Amino acid sequence: MKYMNIIFLTLLISLMSCSEPEQPKANEISYSNSFSIPLGGNTYQIAGQEMVGLDQNGISSWTSDQTVLGVFFKSSGTENVDLNLIIETQEGNSEIEVSIGDQKQKVQLSNGVSGLVKVGNFKIPVGYTAIELNALTKTGANFAKIRSINIEHNGEINAHYVKDNEDNNFYWGRRGPSVHLGYTTPDNQNIKWFYNEMTIPAGEDPIGSYFMANGFAEGYFGIQVNSATERRVLFSVWSPYVTDNPNEIPEDERILVLKKGAEVYTGEFGNEGSGGQSYLVYNWSAGTTYKFLNSVEPDGKGNTIYTGYFYAPEVGEWQIISRFQRPKTNTWYKRPHSFLENFNTRTGHIGRKVFYDNQWVRNIEGEWTELTEARFTGDPIASSGFRMDYAGGSKDGKFYLQNCGFFTPHTPLSSMHLRSPNNQTPVIDFEALETLGVEITAPETIAELDKSAWEIVEFSSEETSGEGATGRAKDIIDGKLDTYWHSQWTGTAAQYPHSFTLDFHATPNIKGFVFHQRDGSRKIKDYKIYGSNDFTSWSPISSGSLLNSAGQQVVTLNEPINIRYIKFEALNAHDGQDFAALAEMGAF
Predict the structure, then answer these.
(1) Where are the domains of the chain?
(2) Which residue among 85, 113, 372, 445 is buried most deeply as judged by most CB within 10 Å?
(3) Which CATH class is domain 455-587?
(4) Whose CA is closest to 487, among 476, 498, 501?
């Protein structure tokens, strides 16, 4: 009987504990809608020196507690949303803080957890929202590998963000929206010259900015911020042969350099079309007004000639940048325009702005016409609504463009804008312009040594996952310009100096070396080359600086040498970052 009573009491307690269903907590909200922001296209590192690993899948490495990440989106705002993280399998325990303005939530991430992790409730303001991710503590290598942020809400909040990676949208989206001004020109005139004045306000010139002043149907002309220590005046013309790889252009469709100014680099470019590129490294200043003048003129032989001139008040006279010949083209100046873009995916969260003033065109009869009307347009990242931090039009009597920085409001695309006439016709001595620059002859063809027996026998680091099928040290000598060696950046990034050692498996007579930088970022600047015949005793044989260009670069030794091993040591990069990349190395 005693045992029966015990059993009865146990059953009674069990029934009492199950008799009432669990009620929802008073502060829990039921949501009818949700969306997920992929971090691969919407995230920036906004603090910290150690670079976070960020790829199309989101945060791939996050090791420093000094790193702060910002995830940005635009909406019509709402009082209540629940925010969740979608993470890869957690390695070790960590704690991070998620904040929107003054609203902060700490999140514990336990070892082995993956998928959806709840953060908490937030209020979303109207306009752009920055979700900040701060590192607190960790026991593993990474604080978290986060793929996306999921936001649950009620009603419509009209969210704008880079939603997918079709057509490489994450790359273009992190660069930010590019915006343009297309100037209205007089009808039925053969225009040869376009003149423009450009001013970048102080503080509106972050790294990666391209302030393009004088665009034309076949190219562009403007100034760039290439790194913390380098700025350029850039003048480029596309080839009539459509490709992103300049090495594919047939000889009869290549852009020829006819003339260039002092200290101007000329070569080829790729990635966004291909053609002839020229630039002058020049430390131009924000807050100063610079003048641009360029011409487009058919030569009567089936080619068109393009010439660009730049006026810096610090110099006090016009300088020629270059003169190009474009084959299979017969045209005068078409589609004068300006644009503003960012070419650095790490600075797409920083705003930039530019003013354009006193635009004029000159026809072949020598008559000037002032341009006072322009159409404002944007690239697909803008027109898709993925990014809406863009503006342009007229302000304070000048045309202007503005992008990035996640500001509001935006300017409607395809809108027309007017500025008041200045009635200040440019005063140009065209005869004096023709005396500027030096004529260019065809470059010498270099016969490189056969690489089939060469071997990379040692290297400081290489990237074996983050660059896809390339990134390995052996890619330096594979004869392909679309593959490259890249220093390690996933996990713990390797630091300068970066190096590799080449074994010729013979002792050829070397007169010099041929380099091709990677057609993208991470171009090597300063280098040293050492030689050895026993892999033990090394002697310096060359040192110098490579150009920030993907074109062929030739280094000629002071005296030929017979050598078996070469060690190439990269000392720093043109973009000031810790990474190095090189597409190809040859010898002759």
Answers:
(1) 33-161, 186-439, 455-587
(2) 85
(3) mainly beta
(4) 498
